[in-house]
Amino acid sequence: RKTLLLASASRFEHRITSGMEEHVRSAAGGSDCVVALVVHKAIKRQYHTYFNWEKLNLGPFPTLLGEVRGEHLKAESKNSPTKECTDAFMELGALRNQLVHKNFAAFVCEKDSDEIVSLCEYAERFVSRVENLLR
Q1: In sequence order, what are the beta bridge partners of 52?
Q2: What secondary structure letter does DSSP report for 102?
Q3: CB-CB contact of 16 with 42 (8 Å)
Q4: Following CA atoms 69, 70, 72, 73 in sequence, which dihedral angle do they give, to the nearest 10 degrees?
């Protein structure tokens, strides 16, 4: 269960940060300097700051998408079915943080494998929505 949880959350992190990097590359108009600056200062090792994992909400993430995309995501995330997908994504991320920061070996995951898979299926829809907004 712990491995499934960690692998899923890591995969979602990779997809979101890769989507952000692709968007920057496209928007930078070929400027390696702009891409390098944004990737090294705003994307690499910054994912944990994008969301409010403790309060289980999107935190500052929507503002990183710009005003139009960010407001759209915030509005969508307050209503079904996107709300359930956002909530699942946030729960997976929060559980992942507990797992890696509170002694992996001793961490007890209260979710069974089927519950984790269900969270992943819902969270997948949120991540796909973010990827679409970045395109």
Answers
A1: 57
A2: S
A3: no
A4: 110
pLDDT of residue 85: 97
Q: What is the spatial distance between Cα 25 and Cα 42, in angstroms, rounded to a whole number?
A: 13
Rounded to 5°, the CA angle 130-131-135 comes to 115
What is the overall mean pLDDT for the chain? 95
pTM passes above 0.85: yes
127/105 Cα distance (integer angstroms): 28
For the segment 123-131, the average pLDDT, to the nearest whole number, is 97
Neighbours of 5 (CB within 10 A): 22
Tens digit of pLDDT for each residue in 103-118?
A: 889 999 999 999 999 9
Q: Residue 61: how many CA atoms within 13 Å on its side-chain side?
A: 27
